[in-house]
Amino acid sequence: xxxxxxxxxxxxEGIIAIEEEGKMKLFNPTTGKKHVLNTTGKYIFQLCDGxxxxxxxxxxxxxxxxxxxxxxVKEDVCRFLYLLAKRGYIEFKE
Length: 94
Hints:
Layout: E1 8-11, E2 16-20, E3 23-28, E4 33-37, H1 39-46, H2 54-64, H3 70-86, E5 90-93
Antiparallel strand pairs: 1-5, 2-3, 3-4
Helix pairs in contact: 2-3
């Protein structure tokens, strides 16, 4: 999944994100899909500003969550972002 490291994830216009009790609820009005993010997912989603690369994001997760297994963090962040894109919540910029 290294091809994704240089991509810049950005929240799709129109996505509704509501913070509630440490979690984040996402709603895509185009597809009608809903998704609830845990604390880590919320943190990652909030970093999807179209400026940070996927590599920037997983490095911030490693730093801010004090992770020692960098390989697993890379894989998990990439998989999570891919899932968000597949469900229409984010898109990847070059």
